[in-house]
Amino acid sequence: xxxxxxxxxxxxxxxxxxxxxxxxxxxxxxxxxxxxxxxxxxxxxxxxxxxxxxxxxxxxxxxxxxxxxxxxxxxxxxxxxxxxxxxxxxxxxxxxxxxxxxxxxxxxxxxxxxxxxxxxxxxxxxxxxxxxxxxxxxxxxxxxxx
Length: 146
What we know:
By secondary structure, this protein is of the alpha+beta class. Helices cover 21% and strands 18% of the residues. β3 and β4 form a beta hairpin.
């Protein structure tokens, strides 16, 4: 079995996500949230969208806020890549791998830029804030049925 390459489940998931990120969502090129100049993304970059009405309710619940973008319909929060691993983001939130905006007519405007060089909002506090606002139990606290 020389030369055989074993792929882990994490590798397969990343490959699948990569394929989804390049699939055309519509006729034009996919729109991606830009990382502001001077900021770095050492952990990659995904995004979580929430309806605009939730945006102002989420902000005060977070210990640190990264880059936030907004348009009339949604607020978008930059998070490290794979922040959906083992978490089901509560509806009506939408998780966007690669910070690619499906069906967005234009790239939303940046409404918050943090100090420093990292654009990330910590995903677990964001997840918990969204669970609380939507009345959804976090994935890890739900009952497991046999």
